[in-house]
Amino acid sequence: xxVLGEIKRGGMKRHEQPRRFGVVFFLACSFFMxxxxxxxxxxxxxxxxxxxxxxxxxxxxxxxxxxxxWVNEQVGDVQDYFRVHAQNKYLxxxxxxxxxxxxxxxxxxRQLSYYEQVLETKLPEAATYVDxxxxxxxxxxxxxxxxxxxxxxxxxQAGSAVVDxxxxxxxxxxxxxxxxxxxxxxxxxxxxxxxxxxLELQALLAGxxxxxxxxxxxxxxxxxxxxxxxRLVTSGAGGLLPRGIPVGEVxxxxxxxxxxxxxxxHRSPDLVRVVNxxxxxxxxxxxxxxxxxxxxxxxxxAP
Length: 303
Known about the structure:
- This protein has helices at residues 2-41, 43-119, 289-301; strands at residues 128-137, 145-148, 161-163, 168-175, 180-184, 191-196, 201-206, 214-217, 231-234, 246-254, 257-262, 271-276.
- It is α+β, with helices and mostly antiparallel strands.
- It has two domains: 24-123, no CATH class; 128-276, Thrombin, subunit H (Beta Barrel).
- The strands form two sheets. The protein has a six-stranded antiparallel barrel. Strands 8-7-6-9-10-11 form a six-stranded antiparallel β-sheet, with no helix packed on it.
């Protein structure tokens, strides 16, 4: 009986051990849950503690980080020095090239003035310009159109060319009192007469619904297609735009399709200029009575 009682007591002790571990586990979980709940409730207190620690250690961090910042500043100054040196070299070369172009332009201007005097050439009046700012995009029935801050009250006229510092941007299609709408040369409805300087050939620059504009030639087949890089200017044909405004250059030639890269900034234009140009009027008159009479007299005197 004694042995049997001891065995029963030992078995009960072995059964009680898992229960004790379970109680300890649940107590630990409860403790951590209470701790996390207190942390959530007292989040502002912990945040304040962190801010206090940062305030205390801020001078120390500033002193320790001073050498690192000084090294970074010195390295940045050295990099800026080499960068400025490279830019200065590039600007000097560009300035020398521009001076050469200026001298050549002055010489050509003097020669042109001399030939005009000798030949008594009658030139059209110089164009006038109206500066404007782009205040809207894609207005009206066009996909690629802009709204300008200048209108008829400022001297803007329908049909006038619009340029930026790169080249032709488009032309005015509607001129209100204080604003105007321009159609970009990249719009599908745009057709601009252009002149290819390398080939001395005229063509139409046609806008596309997506992508760069292309050239449409009057001839069915070209003897020599334009090469990439060929410069295009307005031809003045049709009396819409003045001749000689830079338009762009040939970007690629693929299976007879000539793609053009415009000079103007069509993605984000800001300040533009409207070119008002008065074309010479056709002053030719039909034959008058004197000319008709002389023709009649010549007919009567003929044998």
